Amino acid sequence: MDKSLFYNDSDIVMMKLAENALSMGKNRIVEIRNYAKLAGFKRIGIANCISLQKETNQLKEMLSDDFEVHTIDCRCGRLAASEYLGNDVKGIMCNPAGQAAFLEENNTELNIVMGLCIGHDMMFTSKSKTPSTTLIVKDREHKYNPIEIFNNLK
């Protein structure tokens, strides 16, 4: 199969960097750091769910020795839910497009998604002009660890 049908030169570079960033026996944060260093990135963005603010701050601290880190929680922009979802919906809604815009304004070169809701994560990655990787997915039942679904099957 001709790889040029699916991948351009920058895609191939990204995949080679990812392969070189692998670190057997290490965690994903180590691999993200390795990837960003190999790519020569200086600025990393983190788009997080407000419920993971503590963990986001910890990740920012972990990465700050090597990178300029910009974080933005899902409630940025303070959007009234009723304006977008109907008059029956109260409160503030998440703003994944706003998160992507904020990180773009801060010239991030790699974005990390932390615990955004389904749909919001898709919206963020579709609006982000920068490559994005997911560190944590939202799973309310399994405390952000959806692999437990398979561990509980009989």
What does this structure look like?
25% of the residues are buried. Helix 1 packs across helix 2 and helix 5 runs parallel beside helix 6. With 154 residues, this protein is α/β, with parallel strands linked by helices. Helix 3 links the parallel strand 1 and strand 2. It folds into two domains: 40 residues, no CATH class; 109 residues, Rossmann fold. The protein has seven helices and six strands; from the N terminus they run H-H-E-H-E-E-H-E-H-E-H-E-H.
Q: Which key phrases capture this entry?
A:
two-stranded antiparallel sheet; Rossmann fold; globular; 17% strand; 41% helix; 6 strands; 154 residues; 2 domains; four-stranded parallel beta sheet; alpha/beta
Task: Give the SSE layout.
Blueprint lengths: L8 H13 L6 H12 L3 E6 L4 H11 L4 E6 L5 E2 H5 L6 E2 L2 H10 L4 E5 L5 H8 L4 E5 L11 H4 L3
Parallel strand pairs: 1-2, 1-5, 5-6
Antiparallel strand pairs: 3-4
Please summarize what this structure is.
With 154 residues, the chain is of the alpha/beta class. The strands form 2 sheets. The protein has a 4-stranded parallel beta sheet with strand order 2-1-5-6, sandwiched between helices. Strands 3-4 form a two-stranded antiparallel sheet. The protein has 7 helices and 6 strands.
Sheet with the most strands, sense and barrel status: 4 strands, parallel
Q: According to CATH, what is the topology of the largest domain?
A: Rossmann fold
User: Low-confidence parts lasting 5 or more residues at pLDDT below 50?
Assistant: none
Oligomer: single chain
Strand neighbour order, sheet with most strands: 2-1-5-6
Number of domains: 2
Indicate the proportion of strand residues: 15-25%
Number of helices: 7
How big is the Rg? 17 Å
Q: What is the residue-mean pLDDT, rounded to a whole number?
A: 94
Distance between the termini: 39 Å
Structural class: alpha/beta
Shape: globular
Beta-strand segment tally: 6
CATH architecture of the largest domain: 3-Layer(aba) Sandwich
One letter per element, helices H and strands E, the order comes to HHEHEEHEHEHEH
